[in-house]
Amino acid sequence: MASLKYTPKQQLTEIHSRLSQTFREGRTLPLGYRRKQLLQVARLVQENSDAIMASLKADIGRHPFEATLPELRPIVSSALHAVENLDKWSSPEKPQVEAWRSGWDTTIFKVPKGTVVSISPWNFPWVLTILPLIGAIAAGCTCLIKPSEHAQASAALMAKLIPQYLDPDAYAVCLGAVEETTHVLSLKWDHIFYTGSTSVGRIIAEAAAKQLTPVTLELGGQSPVFVDGDSTNIEIAAKRILWGKQQNAGQVCVAPNHVFVQEQHQSALVEAFRKAYDSFWPMGPLDSSSEMARMVNARHYERNKSLLSRTKGKVVIGGQTGQDLRIEPAIVTGVKLDDPLMEEEIFGPILPIIPVANVDAAISHIQSGSTPLVIYVFTENEETKNKFVERTQSGQLILNETFAQVAVYEIPFGGQGQSGYGSYLGKYSFDAFTHQRGYINVPADARTEGFMQGRYPPYSAPALAFFSQALKAKIPDA
Ligand code: NAD
């Protein structure tokens, strides 16, 4: 495994000054400059795809398929999408105004927030670091990226490639762990974009509050699934849930954490999982042919093993552990809400099934927990769909699919409540790093000034009567 050489603190302070200076000089403002840098991001991935895949293999044992689909492909397509849409996203907006202000120039300018930092986790080390960077570049910001020290090969490769492809005066990489990140957080940024755990999210928000820096927090949580056995195709549901769960060995912020199903459908669902399991891994998930990702380190491996040994539910499929930090996806039935499996986000390949009386019971359990990043619902029943739309809260609500929504950059990706705040992907990434600057230019001509005349002291009764008209306007019935 590559050994990371952490960036000295003094150098981080210098990088911060350099990025701030570049921003102040306005070098990242021209759209042509931004386009060129975005194209370089796409080129970086295309020209180094083998090396990037090797870094993912070294860090998490990722198969090229699971490296390409959720990491490399979205970076290239997001960079090109930003290039195509940059004119539209960055164009000033002219809002509709009240008739009496029609002579004023009223505009919303889309200005870059400034010099920003993005701190990212190990589980999808490339996409979760580079997609925020794409948003920052598109918005015209200068940006420091801080990949996770737990995905060393990826972080080392980023530190080597980013200066080769992007303008080093505007974009830089910080290598390091808690000490280096703490130093980075002590500097003054114009936006902090953080992806990672809820506990570190609190530390980030606190550090940002000291300088009143705006923050995006992309956190995790226990994303639940409801399988409506009365109306859904259970076999398709099982395949899609298991596919989403086994990605990256379950170390995914949007992984299905647990499944609610009506009691009478639990055994049919287990049989459907068994069928999907056998078709995904005819030789078993730990066979060398399966190339399932492994747990990132011994701590997460032991944590998941301990969960499997402590659960009061029944492990009905999988759950064996193997060489090289690998754990078979495990389906556990009859799990209760106070089970050890439900203490916190599982972040591993274990999938508990919680039998419930009906959809209302599932919704009530979801309502009583912290707000998840995503809720997955498998149903064809309109009333059930509507109940989830109207009575639950989450970052996203995904019907009849899991995991794939992270590639849908036409909708915002982000949490609510405990799962974070702010969002990104596509135009929302541009927005995350953009300040909407209100602007008016009021004509200093005689006609406008004549209209303004009544507001100046000494105040007069007729002028007050004129400005009080709104107080007498008829309020329509609801
Ligand atoms: P991690 O340990 O790699 O930490 C993330 C980043 O925070 C790293 O860059 C790390 O150096 C930094 N960090 C850690 N401790 C710090 C501290 N005390 N002060 C300052 N910085 C610190 O990753 P993780 O937190 O284990 O990531 C897993 C979590 O991230 C899960 O909860 C997962 O659900 C969540 N996640 C969320 C998303 C999302 O998009 N919402 C995506 C991926 C992961």
Automatic annotation (TrEMBL):
Active site (catalytic residues): E218, C253
Pfam families according to UniProt: Aldedh
Location of the Aldehyde dehydrogenase domain: 10-436
GO biological process: aldehyde metabolic process
Molecular function, one GO term: aldehyde dehydrogenase (NAD+) activity
GO cellular component, as recorded: cytoplasm
Keywords from the named record: Oxidoreductase
Family annotation (PANTHER family): ALDEHYDE DEHYDROGENASE, ALDEHYDE DEHYDROGENASE TYPE III, ISOFORM Q
Family, per entry: Belongs to the aldehyde dehydrogenase family.
Name of the protein this chain belongs to: Aldehyde dehydrogenase
